[in-house]
Model the fold of this input.
Amino acid sequence: MNIIHTKDYNNMSRKAAQYLLDKIKHKPDMTLGLATGGTPVKFYDYLVRDHQQQDTSYKNITTFNLDEYIGLDPKDTNSYHYYMNKHLFQQIDIPQEQTFIPNGLADNLLEECRQYEQTIDHHGGMDLQILGLGGNGHIGFNEPGTSFNQETHIVELAESTRQANARFFQDLNKVPTQAITMGIASIMKSKEILLLVSGEQKKEALHLLINGEVSTEFPASILKKHPHVTIIADEKALADIHSSYYA
Ligand code: GLP
Done:
């Protein structure tokens, strides 16, 4: 895993945007895996700014989001559909039909998972997958204990994840208890992975990821087995990591 040190959240976001834009330049029709949550918000801001100023085009790009809550309407302001439209899709030139997000309102959720995975495979898997890191080591919504062999599936959200995400909702009771998420196996199919980590609240998780064992109890640890992972983290998140680990 290649670790890139940045000064703060803003620098992490800018660096990550530059990293992706460079990839897009080389492969303007890439298949891109996207993440939600607080971490990538500014990263998306930088992509939008670049699109406005440099005209980078997303017309030939296809995106797959990691996850979506079950039971939320795409118009619900807390759905990941809404988040992606607001922070990225509506502000760039990507055709809507090239953006995929699991449908958390599907009548047959198991079938939705199966089809989502099939669509990813049909596109040849992701060229690059963007990830955030949950405080308990989750990636996507793959909570501790999830088998590394799982593809897109339905999950029960850990209480700690619901509490962490309650800041986006009016109260904890409104946070859904289930989600659809790409599985660890879906994520590992990506040719390359870019993990963004920011803030003091992630320093323990990042320390465990870098220094701990590979274990289903800490889902992100599987990334050590992937041949091409880059972590862009800020100083606060890297507080417990020895500087010899990063560039
Ligand atoms: C959320 C999302 C993940 C995200 C992670 C970290 O629950 N499902 O995709 O990467 O947890 O979120 P944040 O960036 O808000 O800390």
Remarks:
- The mean pLDDT is 97.
- The CA atoms of residues 71 and 107 lie 10 Å apart.
